[in-house]
């Protein structure tokens, strides 16, 4: 008899505790006017925990959904489905791609979210991965590979501080950056999103980027109106897949995981990164989106990450089974918010069913929603949903473009400079050759205005040709040859030939050969036949094979994907600034040598850390 009494007492106590701390509740409750979560002096942790107890299951599940705004059947669905977040995927812009149109779009969505019963504000995320790159006229900085060549953490922090202001000017408060991947095989289409093959460089620059976005290394800096949420991505070993196959399988040892791919996350968590995005890829056959051990035991428990864990774009659908089985797997593995990004009605109904069938425990739902609410309280969204802001004229400002131009200068790596062809002489006659010398889209690469990017005059900026004309001055005659045929005469003292890759992003950039195009090879060889010195400029998202043209050029400069400020290239070519860039990746002779390790110095055409100066 006594035993039964104690069992009842225990059950009663558990229920009592549960109802007090708000876990387990599925029915909506009306919060009192003095509810703790409304108290701005209370901690974000206490406010998040307090709010949880008033939420219905439907409201909790809605918070776990992130939808791309282009897939909203109606803006009313934001309130109808109590959505926790929206995003703009690459190129998902308002009809008029202006700062004002972005801001009013995002504010309009936020007002819908505030009309819900509890008025929980919306998070809005975007890939501002080299400036606010979806927005026309924004400053486009060098992609991470170029920043890796600078080895300059202070510069990276300034760049992301500037980017945060441009993002804030559009009313957005969350970027899916920095990518802290450690690419091991340059055949991967996302190599340029990585700072380096060296985990220590990635860790240092990734942490600097987080401080730039978030305003410092302490999470409390997120409360400032000019700071935005950073995202360390993609957890983990996205850059270690076999053959560099995007979303492929990283067949790695525990030592490689610890000493290469996890390293940047240690520093990211130490610098209070607010959110982390999980990788599409697998490790030894296990999809990261189902890897409960690495998510819960390593990232959460061991590294101490307490922020928001978000999935990648529809990544759950890459798992085996039905939608219900996929969601059950990823949520129970520890994901907090799902970047659906389209079928939110199916998500909503399927999740309700999974909880009702106890396939996802309520404790996991509460844990996920707690992290989501905590992030919103940390950002200050509850106290002012439009808190993150900056004046519209910071977007593409002269000050930001000057930072970008400095970054371009410091990113250039001089691989060859025979006969001191560089720096070019003012007063000389310079022939600039190749369509890529005058193409903003090529300079910017992927993730610019659209997801894949494209060649042409896609946004405001300065091409390399325009930069040379500006920097060289009137005393120097510059002649432009968009194309060059063997019969063309070149009346010049020196030729600057620009070659490289066309824009790409993600899997569309996976490349098994890494060869220069036949057109580019022919361009260099034709220029070399004119019996004048040739300075070759390479615009690429990674080291590409240049064996075929190396002997035809007297000077070779790796310019990576410099972005809108092409004048930064001219600053160095004309000798106003000395080149300081160092290779962030070893430069291969052949794809059969890949993956090329830092220690494989002998094999490389140019070893890791190589770079000449004047
Ligand atoms: C993409 C990328 C990820 C990006 C996300 C949202 O597929 O993998 O880096 O942040 O979708 O655009």
Automatic annotation (TrEMBL):
Residues 413-613 form the Glycoside hydrolase family 3 C-terminal domain. Keywords: Glycosidase, Hydrolase, Signal. PROSITE patterns: GLYCOSYL_HYDROL_F3 (PS00775), PROKAR_LIPOPROTEIN (PS51257). Residues 57-373 form the Glycoside hydrolase family 3 N-terminal domain. The keyword Acetylation does not apply. InterPro entries: Cellulose_Degrad_GH3, GH, Glyco_hydro_3_AS, Glyco_hydro_3_C, Glyco_hydro_3_C_sf, Glyco_hydro_3_N, Glyco_hydro_3_N_sf. It catalyses: Hydrolysis of terminal, non-reducing beta-D-glucosyl residues with release of beta-D-glucose. Transmembrane segments: none annotated. Gene3D superfamilies: Glycoside hydrolase family 3 C-terminal domain, Glycoside hydrolase, family 3, N-terminal domain. Its EC number is 3.2.1.21. Pfam families: Glyco_hydro_3, Glyco_hydro_3_C. The keyword Kinase does not apply. One of its GO terms (molecular function) is hydrolase activity. PANTHER family: LYSOSOMAL BETA GLUCOSIDASE (PTHR30620:SF16), PERIPLASMIC BETA-GLUCOSIDASE-RELATED (PTHR30620). Belongs to the glycosyl hydrolase 3 family. This is beta-glucosidase. It comes from Rarispira pelagica.
